[in-house]
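Incident log entry.

Two folding requests arrived from the same account within the same minute. Monitoring flagged them as a possible duplicate submission, but the sequences differ. Recording both here for audit purposes.

Request one:
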Amino acid sequence: MKVTHIPFQKTGFFSKTMADYLEKGDKIKPFYNNFPDINGFKNQIEEKRTSFRLQSRLVLVDALKKQYQPFKTPDKTAHNIELLKQQNTFTITTGHQLNLFTGPLYFLYKIISTINLSEELEKKFPEENFVPIYWMATEDHDFDEINYFNFDGKKVSWNRKDGGPVGRFSTAGLEEVFEVFSNHLGSSKNANYLKSLFSEGYLKHGNLADATRFIANELFKEYGLVIVDGDNKNLKQLFTPFVKDELENETSFKEVSKTILALEKKYPIQVNPREINLFYLGDDFRERIIFEDNKYKVNNTDITFSKAEILKEVDENPMAFSPNVIMRPLFQEVILPNLCYIGGGGEMAYWLELKNYFEKVKIPFPILLLRNSVQVISEKQVRKLSKLNISIEEVFLNQFDLLSKKVIANSELEINFDDKKNFLQAQFTDLKEVAKKTDVSFINAVNAQERKQIKGLEKLEKRLLKAEKKRQQGLVDRITVLQNELLPNESLEERQRNFSEYYLEYGNSFIQNLKEALKPLQLEFTVLEL
């Protein structure tokens, strides 16, 4: 295994928002609290230590023990759950949807980033304990986003009726998906493990939340990962003061809207708040709560409440209230002694909208850490890159630009016309000096002619490059095939592939290699040569 780190910005797949955040740009500083470095964690520990109550810890531990009761809890996980009772124990959290068979590869990268950061902080702060948390998004209702995964360029899908929180979905019907997936795997030792993992997870557990917990538990059982399901009565009771505040005062809407006014002057906005950022939840529906005509209405239903009735409902039936993307981060931070949230660029972007809201409701705003991203390259692909004289950083170039660069470098012709354009512009500069001594119409004619001549050269340059690409078609094809292997659909492979492709080839050593390679606080993109 060889590991190379390159700046996230050099891949071309990360936004200006993330680039500025990683560079601690002045424009983005007002939108976060502590930065993800050791000094930032030192400050965050003190902030969270003084604000997180012992009673909340006891409720959390009790809820987790009940959630793990039907499962074989790994020893290290059980130990970490017990540690959460102690005031010197803190969490590092990532969250993810309940994608079928973990979904895209970056599910692994998120969780390993969380585990590795917890271990690194243990070394830096030996007086404290750090527990890695995977927050399952059990209350999401976007089934279309999670009902498939890609394997070997094919989509493996689960087709069933949509509706309600996905964590409560029955796993009935996944037998057919298992048959389809099994047929792709073969009969090797690693293939049999993947078949067993899928069947044990989905065919022996009654709902999607339990199946996902089983699979994540199996993959990371050595590392003390604690899995949290927020769709829990006791955990939601801790959150009821904030639910009531939202219903009565629309606090999140007001505070996030103020932040957006400042943020949108510099960066794109990831999500916009609604007046009430809560859903009402049933087993087969999750619908927005709307305040209209002096009543609280549940969208697309006949359910309505007066103010007194809905506040009573919060107390009596806290499970019915589900935070949306704006309030879910607050729910997490209320019930966990959390220091840091680890997520992708899109997640970081919406968290950056929330700092003022957290301050208003007096909950510490966590450190935000961009998760590790990884490009896996096989030995065979490394050899091909070397033969084609393509560097690791060049792999991430736009395909047109990469092909142009390599065709030009491999050509005996002078395809770059920059010198010719510079020469032409120098001639026109002299001509403009002459033109200044005549009238305006002549100056305009010179400017128009300059544009025409430069445009003509650019057209000729493009035509010559196109012809040279055709002449070097063999080189173009080899580069195109290789880059498409590495970046399927001209996207990072971590967003396209499922972990099972690499597990089939490398077995558990794939996870062990990732565990060894990922350095969360290095804040760089990881290239893993296997």
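Request two (distinct sequence, not a duplicate):
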Amino acid sequence: MYRLDPRYAPAPQAVLRSGWQAVAAQLPTGPAVLAIDGPPSVDWSLLADRLEHELTGRGIAPVTLLDIRTHYAPPAHVRSRTEHPADATDPYFRRLADNPLDDLFETLPVPAPPQAGLRLVYGPGAALVEHDLLWYADVPKRYAEAAVGADELGANLGLPGEMPDFRRLFYIDWPMLDRHRDALAPHLDAWLDMQRPDHPAWIDGAGLRATYTALARKPVRTRPYFNSTPWGGHWAQRELGFNPDSPNTALGYELIAPEAGILIGTGPPAQAEVPFQLLCVLEPLSVLGAEVHARFGTSFPIRFDYLDTVGGGSLSVHCHPKESYMRERFGWAYTQHETYYLTLGSSDTKVLLGLREDADVGVFRKEVERSITDGVPMDPEDHVLAFPAEQGQLFMIPAGTPHASGAGNLVLEISATPYLYSLRFYDWLRPGADGNPRPLPYEHGFANLETGRRGDSVARDLVQRPRTLREGTGWREEVIGGLAEMFYEVRRFVLDAEAEADDDTHGRFHILNVVEGEGVTVHTAAGDSHELAYAETLTVPAAVGRYTLRAAAGGPVRVVKALVR
């Protein structure tokens, strides 16, 4: 059965505590300076108040507070330092910021060392102040998205009291915060999970790093979740139990490394969610493998997510930036190649993919512009090919290729990790959640539109037929998608009931997803085992080496696998 909350035991030497009283008990009586860093989405005022209350109750005095956010440079200065000149004319995207958090300040405060008690310095950037102890307080990025969506003042980094903006969150705040957090990770004395502000979870820094070291050598699942969008469907609500009170389930975050978390502990309240990305930062060779690490640094380059349009609407017709455009305009070192695997589909539902042989790009552009300026509907199939969304088919979507999933499908996206660059041409005149037309950055889209591959070459190159790579008793491994211009390949295991297939990472991580059947058990040569049920996604780190897939007894099983070529 699909697990909404996969979790893993902390390392034996780790100290995991929950509740403010237990958290405060981990601090010395002083004198010391405790810096607590983290993102703006943490409730910093509550954190400071509760720690001060608990410490004072223990007889520690004085407890002095320093909110680092009161020392930020004026907002105009922060904006001028962090926003690229090209951003001024682009209402949709921003270039990825490469600023250090030092750029939030004119000068950093230099508090005198306390003679007694504790001085608590807190907020984004607190680690930049000289300190004796360093904690990192965190909530998953979905909380930041919710705060910006709710127009919470101060939700953007370095701009307390200002109205928030999603573009700053995605392209400025998160890159700056991630680099800062990643640099701090080897030195943290503790991690504080603030998802339950009245009952936080705390794990000591050395124990956290030991836990990451162990996880980097065995299969691991990240905590999944779904968001809601205007096109979302209901399959994940009905079948998996996600978002029962939400309008729909749309984008399912199975493994999107910049936002993914791993649950450590035995269950609420004794569990902490920690970033998957830190697994790559602290253990890059074990997780990624030497060649992938040399190519991508600590960026985990493949993502798995769901697009649920079962009982919902069609996605927008869009494409993604070509590699040079992605690098030069947006600042990513690699681009957003994608694939669609039809976990659920039929001959009656569609995937739009690639230009028709007779497509006139000029006419296509004029119809897009008329739909925006005059609200005139268009038929994308006049320009883009439509294919039956047959269950089990993989569609290759290299950057620049126009595409969309139609209504009635469950798509498993197996894609490059960048995921915030949908260059939409047409969105069916559909309003967003705020009632306004959804943004259509079509000029970016036409600047990246691949016009050379069209007609028959789309079907030949991008809708590939499986070819058997190897096979054994009761199983075979197929290549179901690979292109020279895309850095990763998609394969599929087909196993009879209870069949066992051997595999080896050969120094490169694998990602697995059960697309048909009850599931498999993954057994590693080191003696670890991990159950993987239908629709679940599992990362097999490079360090695992040899492993075996054993199919459940209930019938045939199919498991999709992706790896860097």
